[in-house]
Amino acid sequence: MSPHFLFFSRKQEYFFDSFFLQQYLQPLNLTIMKFFIDTANLNEIREVKAMGILDGVTTNPSLMAKEKITGKDNILKHYKAICDLVEVGDVSAEVIATDYEGMIREGRELAELAPNIVVKVPMIKDGIKAIRTFFNLGIKTNCTLVFSAGQAILAAKAGATYLSPFVGRIDDSGWEGMALVRDIAEIYAIQDYDTQILAASIRNSLHIVEAARAGADVITSPLGPILGLLNHPLTDIGLAKFLEDYRKGNQ
Ligand code: E4P
Q1: Does the CB atom of residue 220 touch ligand 1 within 6 A?
Q2: 3-state secondary structure at position 200
Q3: Candidates 201, 217, 223: which one to mutate for ligand 1, based on the most atoms within 8 Å of Cβ?
Q4: pLDDT tens digits for 7-46?
């Protein structure tokens, strides 16, 4: 039985907003897939937030560079602006260091910016060690650049809050990215790991649908694929006809 039915039906869930979800339901680990936007652009974050479906944000050094945010102070200021905008949702900010001490130093600094900061750590040996230390310090982490089930097991074992399998980049290399998400979801369910699967490197709306089917806890997507979920030509045709019929009868 889905854990949802222990508390309320899907229909009732509809009435709970993102804030309620993050504050009360998320800790219960219910399977309601969260929507993060994968961007450092404040206007794009605002757009999804205004739709009422924003649960968080992920960034990476490439996305920050795309917004021309450079220099340590500007980067930290920008993360703070994103955290303030998102309010309760988690915001992933990536460390640049690749050695353990450097990652801990940077991660602590990032975590001091706001309570909703998640320190993004690469899937390397020192990264795993850093994730364990952050876990012990009560600092949330997102283990990034994940391309195999073995890496997913290591990150969960170390206590990562989120795990980011890069779906699109796997597809780009001729493998099926979503198969990895399915595989990890199965392993995490068997082992009862707390780490949340954050399907990343989302390239299109179908990736979001497939991630939901594969058992991802979270998707992080650029704005385009999120808005693409709205689209169906029959919706447009149907709406135009309804409005036309209304106008005909109400002139
Ligand atoms: C987010 O956490 C990842 O860094 C991002 O989804 C990577 O996406 P890309 O493969 O499109 O660069």
Answers
A1: yes
A2: strand
A3: 201
A4: 444 434 444 555 555 566 555 545 589 999 999 999 999 9
